[in-house]
Structures are given as structure tokens and as C-alpha cells.
Design a protein that fits this description.
Low-confidence stretches: 1-26
Largest sheet: 14 strands, antiparallel, barrel
Structural class: mainly beta
Shape: elongated
Oligomer: single chain
Helix content: 10-25%
Number of helices: 4
Number of strands: 18
Number of domains: 1
Strand content: over 45%
Length: 342
Amino acid sequence: MKREKIFSLLTICIILINTESYALIKKTGQSGMTYLSISLGARESALGDASVASVKGVQGLFYNQAVLTQINGFQMTMNQVNWIAKNNLYGIGIAYGFGQYGTVGFDMVYMDYANMVGTVPVDKAIDPRGFIITGDLNPQDYAIGFSYAYKVNTRFSFGGKIKYLHEDLGNAPIAVSIIDEENGIYEYDDRQWSLSHWGFDFGASYDVGYKDLIFAVAFQNFSTEMKYWREQFKLPLILRMGLSMDVAKVFFPDDDKIEINTSIDALHPNDYTERFHIGTEFVYAKMIALRAGYKFNYDVENFSFGVGFNFKIQNVGASIDYAYTNAQYFGGINRFSLRVGF
């Protein structure tokens, strides 16, 4: 037991040291495959995406793999995000807990950008609009991940994920020579824009020992640099640190029907300044949940709210969740999640 405690504390110290080192890195403000930073789960999104310590079960595939150790048996989840500009993001995942041997999981995330119209600038003598339409573009992004989580002791768990990433932007013209730079006339060559790469996630969760206070950290989307032509970029690397707790255990210790789950996240992304998430969830009788949250320092997203229902049919437990996130200038973002476990 003593060795396990030392291992737990050493792992957290290493994470915190790397956190401080990472904070000193100058940001480039550039990242690719940014769909990977979009929150998938309806419950987590309704909580303002304050999720690194509050996420539960199979949804840990997308937020913090360490919590997969909560799973005893099989769990599956399906998520849909109606993103801005009629884009849709889908995420499915399955996980199975092997008890003392850990938990394994598999997931796939797919971004549907719908059809986009391709254009090329031309002289207005050719077309008064200054461009011509080259046809529809059908970009696609997907990520396939394999996760493993292990519970070191009753308080500390860690997990990781390796993921294969593929992006296909379709055929698109690229300027290869200048014909008339003043009027923006160039010679174009048609090329296939696609690449594949690997990424990694890592998460840890620690039960502080007071009530059910949880401290958690996660590194998401770590990768080496990628390159299409001239510009180099990485995945949207994010360091998350957060706390979560059912404060009802403090204010209503004798009422086991009420939960008031509150969570806080601090984020350090590689393509933006620091961000902050907060969220609260009111759960009654473990059957119905009302949620709300807020995301600070975002250009588009801010407040969110949602609802969830838990039910059980024979030996099969399930939950259905919905979340709405306000997106400035673009209207609202709707998310739906279904979880099944047995």
C-alpha cells in the first residue's frame, strides 16, 4: 500500500512539473484538426465542459481515460453534436472493465463538414464576380482510438489513449506560378490534400479523501508536427486540470436522494490563451438531472444547460442526455448522448 501511495504521488508530481514547463512554451496560435477540441458528451457540455474530474464511465474515452476504471462490465456511448454552419460531429465508444486487470476501450470520432463550394479567383474580365466555381468539396476528418486505464489503488487511477487520425480535404487547386500578381492571377495545379497521423491522450484521477472530492488532470491531443505544404502544425494540444465534488454531501449529508455535483476546470491550450470552465448538476433520486455551466475566454461559446434521464430495464442501465450551448453569432449548438451498460 505504501508503494502504491508513493507511485500515485510521484505520477501527479510529474504531471504538475510538466504542466509548469508547458506553460512557459511560446504559443504559435496554430493547430490543425481542431474538431478534436470540440466537446462530444451532452452531460459534459451542459456542465460548461468542466469535465476532466466530473466525467463518468465510458465518456472518459473522450475526456479523461482514467475514469474508465469506474466501469464494471460493458458500457457503450453514442454522441451527436449539431455544430455551427450545419456541420455535425459524431462520437461512438465502447469499453469493458476487467476488474484488477484494468479497462480497455475503443472509440471513433467523425466530423461531417457537409458540402462546400470550391472557388478560384480569376480576372473580372473572365467573370465579373472575380472567381469561378470549381465544384463541391467534401472534406472529412476521423479519429480512431484505443484506450487503457488502470486503477493503482482505491484513490488513484490513470489511463491513456493512442489514436489514428485521418484528414481528407479533397482535391483543391494550388497556385504554382504567378501570371499577374497585381490582379491576383496565378497558374493553378490540382492536388489531393490528405494526411494521416498519430495522437496521444493521457489522464489521471485522484480521490482527495474528503467526501468525494476528485482532482484530475489530462493531456489531450499530443502529437508531433504535421505538414500539408509549407505550413507546419500540431493537433489542438490541451492541458486540463480540474476538481469535482458532490457538495450535497456537505450541506445535506443525510439526504441520499439529492446530488449537487459541481466541477471546475482550468485549461491551457496551445492555440489560445488560458480558459476556465465551471458547471453544476442537480440530480434527484439518480433518475433525473438538471445541468448548467459556463465557459470563460471563448470567442463563440459561453453558457450552456441541459437535462439527463437515467433508467434501468432488467439488468441493463441506460441514460439519455441533452445539452444546449449558446454560440454567439451562430445561434445554438445541440448535443445528444446515449449510454448503455450491463
